[in-house]
Amino acid sequence: MMIEVLKSKLHCVTVTEANLNYMGSITIDEDLMDAAGMIAGEKVQIVDNNNGERFETYIIKGERGSGAICLNGAAARKVQVGDVCIIISYALMDFEEAKSYKPTIVFPKEGNRL
């Protein structure tokens, strides 16, 4: 049996931009992506701690070292610059494998720095 489990999480990043005129997705600083084991195109869930919004989108690589967390397209309507969000990725794995799997949790500092 396969189950979906937490793969990785960027916990409490700050939204730096909301770009309504871009075709969907979330732009994430490539340093943060690497730290969390996330890749471009990966489906993620976004949880906004300020307003309770929960939605899904996919990742676009942002400039390395920029601290960028930018919600694009329709997702830009669900956040405001300065909101604190959690970015969550999941993985499908065998039930037995999932029992011992350890997700990667990243707690960025101010300015979305590692």
Polypeptide structure, described:
The chain is mainly beta. The chain has helices spanning 30-36, 95-100, and strands at 2-14, 17-19, 26-29, 43-48, 54-62, 69-72, 84-94, 104-106. Strands 2-6-3-5-4-7-1-8 form an 8-stranded mixed beta sheet. The longest helix is centred in the first third of the chain and has 7 residues, at 30-36. It is globular. The model has no long low-confidence stretch (mean pLDDT 97). This is Aspartate 1-decarboxylase. The active site is at 25 (schiff-base intermediate with substrate), 58 (proton donor). It is found in: Cytoplasm. The modification Pyruvic acid (Ser) is found at residue 25.
The share of residues in extended strands comes to: over 45%
* Overall pLDDT metric: 97
**SSE run:** EEEHEEEEHE
Helix content: 10-25%
Assign an overall shape: globular
Q: How many strands, which pairing sense, and closed or not: the largest β-sheet? A: 8 strands, mixed
> How many runs of DSSP E, i.e. beta strands?
8
Number of helices: 2
Give the strand line-up of the largest sheet.
2-6-3-5-4-7-1-8
Specify Rg, calculated over alpha carbons.
Answer: 14 Å
Question: What structural class do you assign from the helix and strand content?
Answer: mainly beta
